[in-house]
Amino acid sequence: xxxPSSPAPEEGRTGESxxxxxxxxxxxxxxxxxxxxxxxxxxxxxxxxxxxxxxLLAGTTGAxxxxxxxxxxxxxxxxxxxxxxxxxGEMSQRDEAGNHVVDWGAxxxxxxxxxxxxxxxxxxxxxxxxxxxxRDGQDLVFDYxxxxxxxxxxxxxxxxxxxxxxxxxxxxxxxxxxxxxxTSMVSTGTLS
Length: 192
Description:
Strand order of the largest sheet: 3-4-5-6-7-8-9-10
Order of helices and strands: EEHEEEEEEEE
Shape: globular
Largest sheet: 8 strands, antiparallel, barrel
Number of strands: 10
Distance between the termini: 122 Å
CATH architecture of the domain at 84-191: Beta Barrel
Low-confidence stretches: 8-12, 34-50, 54-58, 60-73
CATH class of the domain at 84-191: Mainly Beta
Mean pLDDT: 75
CATH topology of the domain at 84-191: Porin
């Protein structure tokens, strides 16, 4: 009986062209990789990651400590008692060149020891929240963020500075802002 003959193991397989192929068998799995250097690389990567984390942690901790020191020296006690209450008056607004723009009524409400307050620019029909950002001696600085402005007369964010007035029961106010078109504006007035 005659049958197909199989090549001898040392002969290898031949393709259609009859040339000898170097492939003896195919596998569906990738060949094993060398792990001779991977241990060194992963240790180096871990060391770099740990060092970077330590630097980041030290920077964050340092920033937090500096932030606490700044806050404790400026706003820790909140609004002082003499500034507490509702203050009302008229502000006079000027542009960068010092030209008069408009006069507007303002009311500021502050609670003793609080970090926040409220402001209303009632002539312009605008309201916003105040956040104490700096306390330098008797001077207070607040960030103002608008919460109500149906006619879009006011700016969204500004700064309000308060200091004692010339007489008891008065505060001098200075409002600094940049208009929607980029014009710097300063308003000053007395609140009582």
